[in-house]
Amino acid sequence: MCFFALKWRRGLMTTTAVGWGVFLGAIAGYYAADISDSLVTIIIFMGIGAIVLPILTYNIPGVNRFMIGYIVFMKIAYMFTTELFRRGSTDWFGILLLPMIIGAIGGVILAAWVDVPVSAFVLACAFFGASEAAPIIAKYINYVGYGITQDVNWLIDPLGIIMKLFSIELSDIPTLVSLLILMGFGIPMQLQIIKNQGYSYSIPLIVFETDNKSEHGKIVDESSK
Q: How far apart (Å, rounded) are the C-alpha atoms in residues 166 and 16?
């Protein structure tokens, strides 16, 4: 089993959890400040959220599933809104806000899918693997497109070059399509692997690290502790 997919790159998971913690803390602090009428109250709640939510993310399966779902669905939606922006169909507000909304909806759905706790793991594995291969496939698709049309736009993306200066990687249609196709194959393959290993789809997944790196990312249930 892919440890990094299970945890979805600990740094990214933690950063996302901190962001959500600050956001939720600000909301809670806003209502608490109505009582105390203090900006300090809001700041304190934001700090508490930034600390508590990452802890819950790595200890509560439902919160972990939400974060994984949010990241995966948000990133896929961002790839789509990038293309809409290039075509002039949305503005900067849409390219950033829409993926966050879609990611939150996807996260809630995944968190509520308690009958199949393994779903978050499978989705993350499929996305992680596909995101590694999709850009390579897209690169050769672009080469073929340029070879057929001699249109340099297949090879050069002015918007992408500008955004790279800010370390932001934009996507294109070939990458998005390749990702979705690979995930379409990857998800049933992951389910089959889990089934072949004798695990139930309802087995709880626990995100953990151990001193023994060979143990990272293994499925743990009560009977195996």
A: 19
**Cα separation of 68 and 218, whole Å?**
17
Q: Which of 122, 169, 111, 116 is nearest to 6 (CA)?
A: 122
How would you write 147-178 as a 3-class SS string? HHHCCHHHCCCHHHHHHHCCCCCCCCHHHHHH
Mean pLDDT calculated for residue range 65-92: 86
Closest CA to 98 of 76, 69, 120: 76
Amino acid letter for position 123: L
Convert the pLDDT of each residue in 66-78 to its tens digit: 998 999 999 899 8
- The Cα 55–Cα 174 span in angstroms is 37
Q: How far apart are the first and last CA of the chain?
A: 18
